[in-house]
Design a protein that fits this description.
With about 325 residues, the chain is of the alpha/beta class. The chain folds into 3 domains: about 150 residues, Rossmann fold (3-Layer(aba) Sandwich), CATH 3.40.50; about 55 residues, Helicase, Ruva Protein, domain 3, CATH 1.10.8.60; about 90 residues, Zinc Finger, Delta Prime, domain 3. The protein has 15 helices and 7 strands. The longest helix has 19 residues. The protein starts with a helix and ends with a helix.
């Protein structure tokens, strides 16, 4: 449902893009002028970068926009040879009659090798009059300065939970899925502003039961609900190491979490824990950061999580 639904209902104009008002206002001016400079869309995944590029091309060229558009995923064709052959060959050909320039859209451009980026810089320079580039990336810092300076940079932000909630509810209605209000709120919470992840979460849950509940969402997204994570902190504070350890193991087993997933989810919920003061939260954050680092570096997950629970019990225990 997710990829097909997104493609089928992709906005046909930049004006239809949700949750990115600052970006849409600037792109609308380019669409009205039917021209634009080289562009760079930077931001986290699932926030509308690819949609914005395709919608802008459609606004400029109309329904036949594919005739003047080369769309490439740079993570698949990230080597120098792809830039020198496929991209350069398309850039050097004349645009279709009635058009003054063509568009090359490089998705995930931050995956290009430094050599490929150097070749791309030269092509952008040579064919600027007859070809425009739109680059999308998650990390603009991985794009060389020579390319960044040639582009107008647009920063996409994670979508607000209200926007994600609105879109997920709309998808559920159109797909005849019974979505509880609490389940929709859970999906918007676990998506962290990534609309693609939100729609995928809905799809996975709906494939098991057309009536999507809050519990089903948390079970199918490998995410522990807030009350379970708060319960772990409360056990560390009031009950001691062994009860806290059992509670942590229960969360891991029930929701199928990896150790790093649990640490990240605990970190996100820590700010909403009301029974800890700021000094305690700072100390717990340091303990979780050290545990995450050790697991990433290859430390045994079980032992490191037990050590984290013991450390938190020491820091906040009554």
């Amino acid at each position: 449902m997710s990829e097909l639904w997104v493609e089928r209902h992709r906005p046909r104009s930049v004006s239809g893009i949700k949750g990115q008002r600052a970006v849409v206002d600037r792109l609308r001016a380019y669409a009205e002028a039917c021209t634009f400079p080289h562009l760079m869309f930077a931001g986290p995944p699932g926030t509308g970068k690819t949609t914005a590029a395709l919608a802008l091309a459609r606004d400029v060229y109309g329904e036949g926009y594919r005739n003047n558009l080369l769309e490439m995923n740079a993570s698949d064709e990230r080597k120098l040879e792809s830039i020198r052959t496929k991209v350069k060959q398309f850039a050097r050909t004349a645009p279709m009659p009635g058009s003054t320039f063509k568009v090359i859209f490089l998705d995930e451009a931050d995956a290009l090798t430094p050599d490929a980026q150097g070749a791309l810089r030269r092509i952008m320079e040579q064919y600027a009059e007859t070809c425009r580039f739109i680059l999308s990336c998650n990390y603009s810092s991985k794009i060389i300065e020579a390319i960044q300076s040639r582009c107008a940079v647009f920063r996409f932000r994670p979508l607000d939970q209200e926007k994600v909630l609105e879109m997920v509810t709309e998808v559920a209605q159109k797909e005849d899925v019974e979505l509880d209000v609490e389940a929709a709120e859970a999906i918007s919470r676990v998506s962290l502003g990534d609309l693609r992840k939100a729609i995928t979460s809905l799809q996975v849950a709906a494939s098991l039961d057309r009536h999507v509940t809050r519990d089903l969402v948390y079970e199918t997204t490998a995410t522990a609900p807030p009350e379970e994570l708060h319960g772990f902190f409360l056990a560390c504070k009031e009950d001691g190491f062994q009860p806290a350890r059992r509670r942590m193991r229960g969360v891991l087993d029930r929701f199928g979490l990896a150790g790093t997933d649990l640490v990240n989810q605990l970190h996100r919920e820590l700010g909403d824990v009301t029974f800890l003061d700021e000094v305690q939260k700072l100390a717990v954050t340091e303990a979780m950061a050290e545990t995450d680092f050790r697991m990433v570096e290859g430390g045994g997950e079980s032992l490191q999580l037990d050590a984290m629970a013991a450390r938190i019990c020491t820091l906040i225990g009554s």
